[in-house]
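Example complex used in Figure S2.
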Amino acid sequence: MIFERDGKSTHVLNDINLEVGNGEFVCLLGPSGCGKTTLLNAMAGFLSPTSGEIKVNGEAVRKPDPRRIFVFQERGVFPWLTVEGNIGFGLSKLARAEREKRIAHYVKMVGLEGFEKAYPQELSGGMKQRLEVARALAVNPDMLLLDEPFGALDSITRLIMRGELLRIWEAERKTIVFVTHDIDEAVQLADRVVVMSARPATIRQIVNIDIAHPRDISSPRYLQLRDGIFQQIGLAHKV
Amino acid sequence: MNLLSKPRKWEQFFWPILASALLLALWHYSVIWSGTKVFPSPREVGKGIGELVRHHVLWRDIVDSLRRVAAGFGAAVLLGVPLGLTLGWYPAANQVVNPVMQVLRPISPIAWIPVAIIFFGVGDRAAMFLIFLGAFFPVVLACISGVSNVPSVFRRAGRNFGLTAPQLLAKVLLPAALPQILIGLRIALGIAWLVVVAAEMIAVDSGLGYLVIDSRNSGKRYDLVVAAILMIGVIGLVLDLAFRRLEKLHSVRWGFRFES
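Predicted assembly (499 residues):
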């Protein structure tokens, strides 16, 4: 993947070969600016790779599609719509009764009952992020592409949101590709962690996280896997 | 005094009324002390307003002015909003039109008066045309910048949910740009109210602007001149306050506050 901007070309992604299984939770982990988000954008169809191909169920990805919903790093909920309006945004083709049923279902799933008529500005950061996940799930996609979705949240809310996301994932079994630069986050959430190098990003290692959920984050196996990734990225494990 | 303490209820009204009263007193005594024979005192102006109301000219002039503003401003909105949205949507088209607009925009609508009279003759339509010219450019420019400032996350989210181009415009770009468009419309309405007065002084024989110039020409009635000027100010204020209420609507309120 090569970007052209202001006459300079930047080589962002190089020789990426990755296969994601159905219903799998994969984390893309790497230093900031390495191209994780670029890879995710290409998977979503917002960007076309300069060489190579991305396929979903054997079909090449050429443009965005409601079967693959991107959840944004910045808050992507629409501030002019209520909670209900946001969740129902992608459902205009459905009959009214069906749409309302779907909205109610996902309001409940992300724990926003009582806020159906609220506008995003009245919600906290964590609630907005849950709303965005609900809006994505409501169109029943095969795949969720999450771009550092909890990056802007405080650390306590972030921990709660990880638990919520896992609960939702276990209920809905969507394929999830989750971009993060937080090593702990990746090891807590993913079935597999894809460790990427600095730009031009290549895949350094794919780590299988063979711990069942809920994960004990002080168990020896967790620490072993996490420390392995710390070393792989080349960070001294001391502050 | 801290951030949470609000001014008490009586204070909200007391200080502005006191300030107005002081200003009136200053005006009153300036007229007396300077011994002017031309400029009227507040009391004479009050009488003048009463006289205008009694002779039923004031109401007719107000209605005439508002009617012209409604027509000129309405046309500016009806043509300017779709044009601005289109130009914001297609930056390439905007690059073609932009130089022409940048040249036309700083021209005072007053400069167009001779042209307006040639096109439309002395009358209502010339005045409406001038108001249209004054209001049109702020509306177009607000729409262009409103649409082009829509964060790309919103556009991408819209495309991700499978919206077609017209749907994206109606369901994402327009609502996202609406707060900025409303600000542009409010500025345009203010300009329309400025222009109507000037236009009525030259191109027509009714309205508040005509009342100002006519009161001077027919017998130097400066009490009526100042009375008309005050009415222009008050009505302009009422128009602005009425428009501001739109900014309180739920679907645009997010754009007028800082996110906490």
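Chain B touches chain A at residues 151, 153-154, 156-157, 159-162, 171-172, 175-176, 178, 250-255, 257, 259 (CB under 8 Å). The first helix of chain B runs from residue 9 to 34.
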